Amino acid sequence: MILKALKTSPSVDFCKNHMKKFISILKPYLRWLILGLTAFFLIHTLKTNWQEIAEIQITSTGWLCLALAFVVTTTAHIWAAWVWLWILREFNQTIKQRCGLHIYLKTNIAKYLPGNIWHFYGRITAVNKAGVSLGPATLSVLLEPLLMASAALAIALITAQQKYWGLQILCLVVVLTGVHPRILNPVVNHLRKIKWKVTSSESPSAFFYQLERYPLRPFLGEMGFVSLRGIGFLLTALALMPFTPQQIPLLISAYSLGWLLGLVIPGAPGGLGVFEATTLALLESHFPSGLLLSAIACYRVISVLAETFGALFAGIDQHLVENHKPSL
């Protein structure tokens, strides 16, 4: 009774409202603070190791590795589009595969716009026009980054150095438990309430979709996506700096953690700066800072080029499909 009275008391509601206002005021400044700190760290490292970076020369084998990194990274984004279609099927929604691939690849590049939500908005709008209900469309784009984050953390734990294997196994069990529908459904619905409010013209029941089973296939698919991205990073690093096979797990683990933090920390759009600073901090004690910074910067360029190529390819393919439709 006391707890119930506290929950409904005006003073508690007053505190909650003021806390929400304070967080909303602080959030933009926090984003700029994170961006400023990461930019300062990267610029300082660049300034310190400028001479080493200027002396880097890429061999013909190195250029081949960079080309392969581009192909693998592009393949990763196409694979991510397939996995997103699997997520839609988890909510009993279907869409033509080619159309779904077009939607995902064309909207994916919008994540670099300020706000970091426009790829979500564009994807929801496009898939809704393609015949998918608004509720599952919204839940699919909210569930995807949660599964990606869980997959990246799982890979980081698996490939990390086995110094604390008991703790790593425990954390891995927690991650695998965290994608269970009993945990994911409340989280996804809470995010839906925060980011997208149901308007008066929409039925609230349209959003009452939930996962009915453990999303094993999408989760494994996202692990494949992060693994492909990691291979692209390895190929990029191989073009600029030597490393031994024994160092591959270290590179994959650091990449996965850097990519994860770039995904979840509010900073620059697309994780710009956060990924670079995290990966550099995790690996600079194992590799020359100048070579490492160059490899990370090259990988960012390759990643953006791969996403741009995917969007252009999807747009051209969609145009060709529409032009070859038989007239009625």
TrEMBL record:
What is this entry's stated membrane topology? Multi-pass membrane protein
Residues passing through the membrane, by range? 29-46, 66-88, 139-158, 164-184, 219-240, 260-283
Check the UniProt entry and state the signal peptide residues, or none: none
For this record, the Gene Ontology CC terms, alphabetical, are: plasma membrane
Q: Organism source for this protein? A: Lyngbya aestuarii BL J
- State the protein's name: TIGR00374 family protein
Oxidoreductase found in the keyword field: no
Domain of life of the organism in this record? Answer: Bacteria
Q: Where located? A: Cell membrane
- The reply on keyword Zinc is no
Alphabetized UniProt keyword annotations: Cell membrane, Membrane, Transmembrane, Transmembrane helix
* Pfam name, any one: LPG_synthase_TM
